[in-house]
Design goal:
Number of helices: 10
Number of strands: 10
Number of domains: 2
Oligomer: single chain
Length: 355
């Protein structure tokens, strides 16, 4: 967007009966935090719905003034997140702090929205630069290595009452209204789709295996070491330096406490979901197993896991493969596609076996 505009027009999710802040309003809000901007402003609108507004105004590449109506973002939550950000800074990654006004408060009210300020880090994200395939793989390995080393350094340190996005049983903020963790919701959606296409035998087998694995996890998960993570490590949240190496993290909205080996199990690996033509269920399963050994076992070499953690990580990995959001989206797509349906059914059958 042209920074010379005096008005910034949000996307389609912003309600037509609302008025977004103009340049003067943005600079006026910035001044309430004790800062003066020159007015070089750009808007990044990441709103998802009228009840999930997220307007992000980048000012002079120094600050991000955010306007939102997310109920989970509170004074207490930002205090919690700043403590975590300080840990990442101590660890050596660049992460943007949340900033308070002269009265020590994060939030200001603005026309029915919450307004708060965050530092801006002038580095590109990994998905903004043109990474070659080998570069992308290297950056991702650097991310996973950093997750493992961070867990080793901050295991059981200052745990948050807010759970991370991968959490089973103990609910993350976005799962609380529904009353089920996301993986349970995803699994139920998969089973419902199988029933709709009359694949009852797969549902029965999957449910039996799913129940067995979750009960194994339930019996030990409260005793497993935990850590507070940024919890949404993907290429759009990973900052890279001029040589395309990991430099920092942004977007801590999903941050929370997580069982360490569950975090590991959910990072890296899958069934080559980007390939939407048939390649064979065995090939997809072998790819998932190879990723498990390539990424997760390397993380265990950096993070000194106990024997129980190593066993539990395999159970968590199974849950991630059968009920992770990318995987379930792929299953649902494939089950409705004649060319992939049989391959997906065979893959689900393989998932009911030990691997």
């Amino acid at each position: 967007m042209n920074s010379n505009h005096t008005e910034f027009v949000p996307g389609n999710h912003f309600p037509a009966n609302r008025k977004a802040p103009d340049r003067n309003g943005i600079l006026s809000e910035l001044s309430k935090y004790g800062y003066t901007g020159q007015g070089n402003i750009s808007l990044i609108d990441t709103s998802r719905a009228s009840d999930d507004i997220r307007l992000n105004y980048v000012i002079d590449k120094k600050w991000v003034l955010r306007f939102c109506n997310a109920p989970e973002m509170t004074e207490t939550r930002l205090i919690e997140l700043n403590r975590l950000i300080e840990r990442y800074l101590q660890f050596g990654l660049k992460c943007p702090r949340f900033l308070t006004d002269q009265n020590g408060r994060f939030f200001h009210a603005w026309d029915g929205l919450n307004c708060y300020l965050q530092e801006y880090i002038d580095l590109p994200t990994a998905n903004e630069v043109r990474l070659e395939p080998d570069e992308e793989d290297r950056v991702w390995q650097e991310v996973l290595d950093s997750v493992a080393a961070f867990a080793e350094m901050f295991k059981n340190v200052d745990l948050s009452s807010t759970m991370g996005m991968y959490s089973l049983f103990d609910l993350a903020p976005y799962d609380i209204p529904i009353g089920k963790d996301e993986k349970q919701q995803n699994f139920e959606k998969l089973c419902q789709t199988l029933l709709e296409i009359r694949e009852t035998r797969f549902v029965e087998r999957l449910q039996a295996k799913h129940t067995m694995i979750r009960e194994r996890i339930r019996s030990v998960y409260k005793t497993l070491p935990r850590c507070v993570f940024q919890a949404d490590e993907n290429l759009s949240n990973i900052l890279v330096d001029k040589n395309h190496h990991l430099a920092g993290l942004i977007d801590f909205n999903m941050a929370g406490t997580e069982v360490i080996v569950n975090q590991f199990a959910n990072l890296g690996g899958g069934f080559q979901e980007s390939i939407t033509e048939p390649i064979g269920a065995n090939r997809r399963m072998q790819y998932a197993i190879d990723c498990y050994h390539k990424y997760q076992e390397r993380m265990i070499q950096i993070y000194h896991a106990t024997a129980l953690e190593k066993r539990a990580m395999k159970w968590y990995h199974w849950i991630a493969l059968v009920a992770g959001w990318p995987q379930v989206c792929f299953f649902l797509y494939g089950l409705k596609t004649e060319t992939l349906k049989n391959e997906i059914l065979e893959l689900l059958s393989l998932l009911t076996d030990d691997f």
